[in-house]
Amino acid sequence: MSLDGWIHRKSKAAGKAARKHLDALPDGLWTKCPKCGEILFSKELEKNLMVCNKCSYHFKLASPQRLEVTVDDGSFVEMDAGLSTVNTLEFPQYDAKIQKLTAASGLNDGMVTGTATIGGYPVVIGVADFRFLAGSMGSVYGEKVTRLFEKGLAEKLPVLIVNCSGGARMQEGLLSLMQMAKTSAAAGKFGEAGLMYIALFTDPTMAGVHASFAMLADVIIAEPGALIGLAGQRVAAQAQVMKEPPGYRLSEWQQDHGMVDMVLPRREIKDTLVKLLAAGSHGGSHGA
Amino acid sequence: MSLDGWIHRKSKAAGKAARKHLDALPDGLWTKCPKCGEILFSKELEKNLMVCNKCSYHFKLASPQRLEVTVDDGSFVEMDAGLSTVNTLEFPQYDAKIQKLTAASGLNDGMVTGTATIGGYPVVIGVADFRFLAGSMGSVYGEKVTRLFEKGLAEKLPVLIVNCSGGARMQEGLLSLMQMAKTSAAAGKFGEAGLMYIALFTDPTMAGVHASFAMLADVIIAEPGALIGLAGQRVAAQAQVMKEPPGYRLSEWQQDHGMVDMVLPRREIKDTLVKLLAAGSHGGSHGA
Amino acid sequence: MALSVLDFEKPIAELDANIAELKRISEEEGIDRSADIEELERHRDDLIAQIFANLTPWDKTLLARHPNRPYSLDYIRTIFDDFVELHGDRLFADDNAIVGGWAFLDGNPVMVIGNQKGRDLKERQFRNFGSSKPEGYRKALRLMHMAEKFGRPIITLVDTPAADCSFGAEERGISEAIARNMMEMSLLKVPVIVAVLGEGGSGGALAIAVGDRILMQENAVYSVIPPEGCAAILSEFQRDPARAPDAAAALKITAEHALEHKLIDEIIPEPVGGAHRNYEGAAKFVKEAISRHLAELEKVSTKKLVEHRYNKFRQMGVYAETQCENG
Amino acid sequence: MALSVLDFEKPIAELDANIAELKRISEEEGIDRSADIEELERHRDDLIAQIFANLTPWDKTLLARHPNRPYSLDYIRTIFDDFVELHGDRLFADDNAIVGGWAFLDGNPVMVIGNQKGRDLKERQFRNFGSSKPEGYRKALRLMHMAEKFGRPIITLVDTPAADCSFGAEERGISEAIARNMMEMSLLKVPVIVAVLGEGGSGGALAIAVGDRILMQENAVYSVIPPEGCAAILSEFQRDPARAPDAAAALKITAEHALEHKLIDEIIPEPVGGAHRNYEGAAKFVKEAISRHLAELEKVSTKKLVEHRYNKFRQMGVYAETQCENG
Lengths: 288, 288, 327, 327
Ligand SMILES: [Zn+2]
Ligand SMILES: [Zn+2]
Known about the structure:
By secondary structure, chain A is of the alpha/beta class. Chain A has helices spanning about 5-10, 10-20, 40-45, 65-70, 95-105, 140-155, 175-190, 205-210, 235-240, 250-255, 265-280; strands spanning about 30, 40, 75-80, 85, 110-120, 120-130, 160-165, 195-205, 220, 230, 260-265.
């Protein structure tokens, strides 16, 4: 159950690529904290699971990094990596964007799914990658999340989804919107079988993802300070007459408002996942 | 479906007795409205279903009056009239109170139940009578409500309960409290069978009755201006630091707060009941 | 309320005015101008046909938002009998941006639920411009579960610009409410028919739009984001809300496109010149479609109904797939 | 927090002080006073036994409210392993007057839910003095349904003066929340064990207290209304809150009376002098009782479980019945 394994096995190149598209400013040895401005020794930062040791800012993680801090070493087996985007609507510039992102990240989409173990408990896991169009949900994303639930259902395994998304993907129009209904229906069918669904909300978990399968988890854990809500900040700003109250829609605020079960520092998440999986992994003696 | 039948068939003595223990000041020809002070011609008042034609104050109705304005003429058949109170706790003065109330009202308890038709639709109906210890719920009341649901369940009939109660009956201690759980469980079992349960809230519908079977109705109708809430006014006043806002916990306020489906003047209630019974009386083609 | 006139409707409105004037004159002066009137009316109808045959997605957006377009309660009054409106979510409040209750369709009880916009300024505020807060969606869910309990079909009428996303709505979990409704609707054991009658505004619409049949009026729009919002966010449109017409085209928000992508089942026709020119006519088309689909669904077993509904949404989406070594 | 001392505990506290002083002296001065100490301790234990054998219902009320009495989280920490607290009702807020989450009882996962009072002034306010708002009961219900989903038993720990009935609580339907919980608990398809550990305060307690087994600590009280409230309302007590001790007696709020009327299943003993004198000892008794009843319930089929639970509450109440001609 070591949480430190990820740093030793992570390739330097992958780490750099991740940081480039996330929020660190890599200059080799040193990394600047985007929140407090502190210049951090990169090795120390990585050892600290990419959490600023001055202000506790939780750096965004690319999907490989997230998997490394979350699942047992070497246990992840990817599913459905062959799914890729089709620009059905012939939306302007969409093809070019996708090609560029795929080349830069090595990803076909902002949702990476597969099977793994966590503390020895087998799970089906989905991890969002913000580098890929802000982790937005289009047809591929929705299909992967749906297959994730279906895999869990077929194998009677719990599901864990790590969210990091700006919402539905505009470039696929109504097809993207319908992924909300599709993934929510999949979560419903999965839940009816009495299987556990855990969600982790990282910064940001927004809009079409937040307002569909993400909020339907049995247990929701949030990383500190993550922005969580329906309306993007631009839309929210237009809709509000008053100024936003401090902490508005951040993890801690969402817990106070009953919408997440707990806010946990990155280092404490895996231990809690293991306890939850112990509680929910195998069927109980009484059932519906 | 005439709403005026009740006045013609109602005995003068019953009417007077009812008013005496309710809120009218009978002096034969004239009745004073307790809300606006208007002196009303008693015959007109009765024709107007005991609603003040100046301020629309809805006079409390005794159970026979309520039945007359609610069910089809002559259709009511009482059930479980033989149930009566036992002072198991040997609570001070309780026996004497019950004897006095029974003598004055002819009732064994503040809940009168039976079968009837409304617009031709058969229903099982319960009507609270405020004259009997403020319609408070003790063992007899809880048993009658429970049997009401069980009768509905056995005969696949919808249930209508007209509430008028101050809450649980202190004089039966924990036995009274448990009537909340007992009646709520009965409502739950009834509801699982896909049968319709309609509640009418009249002034007042409070505390242990409000916080149990009353709030569990599928559809809740309230008479205008009825006080509806958990804490009695004395308790509520102690609990509040601020002054009560206008209309606090009255029917209209409860509708704004999502707790009742509609506020209807007494004269409009029966027509709406008939429509609801038409929608819910017989099983649909799809079922759980 | 006076008839509002969209830019592209102006030629029609002019002809309407001419016809009205001619009628007035012929009546006042007792002169028979019926031939002229008939010709003008024919001309007006040709013009309407011509204009409506060439509407852009943005034109349809404006039509879907037309201030004179019939709203849910207009349809409910026309299509159903004995509507008994039910209020409240039993949790927090009654939301006037969603209406719902028992009603009878050709004598059969159904639960009807719809987004509700307001006509004049006061009513618009009362209805929060048709944008629901969590309590609206939770009321809708309560009513849907009531319908399920009694084995009655559910009809939803969709017409909302979007869900409300004010402080209060976020505080009370607007995302949770939308998500839960979609999930619960996918599991309902009774037939659910959805009619998109005006604006199908993103998650705010979808929260009452998961059903066995999704019908859509020919001038309604259904979109993942309002075209103005899309134009304002994407550099493809210079982040300029004024380029909303281009975004509307790119987003493919019309009923034809939705049908093409199998996201809806059928397009409900509107009377000549749009629903706002003829409420009765519009309602007649909607009623016919709902009744017909309902009759079909009544024949399906509960098990198949829920299974088909799942599969219907399961199939939505377009993607490519290649086999991977790690698949 | 210093030990609070009730009036009737004062003789005990004096002996406790004497014993402590003697121990201090014998240690400081190196003199062996163990015989004296032992005699004093024996005397103290006799005194406790004597006092606790003659407690009035009002004394028990004060014990149940004792500021040093162990609260739900104290029991949870002692009885269960690996507690993972879950927060929020997914509707409005997280209510700190109720706690709940996954935990392990002898290695088996259970959902544990309890009212939670606060120890010092700050924590008391944070916990709203153990009085829940609707969001607390709705959180509890969410967790109970989660337990049901996974087929896990539910343990509830009851210790609340009453439900909150402030503006906000009434606004958000405190009555609805209490009623719904009782109904839903009666239908749960998993074992539910209720332990009344302090104050069983009216509907506020009952909202998490519908179960297959109702256990009650020997010094806990369970009442339809606080004795002070009853005394203040009824003319039988001159409407004088100071007559609460008389009302407490009349209301029959002790575990013995509850057992006599078959409203609870078993009385859980407390350590000598009450739970507040020995947290570990109190928890041991509670754990033993819960484990034993849970083992029994695990053998019952789901169908029988729900049926028995219904019948259990169905039978509560005492009344006379004569046959009537209109019956
Ligand atoms: Zn920092
Ligand atoms: Zn008056």
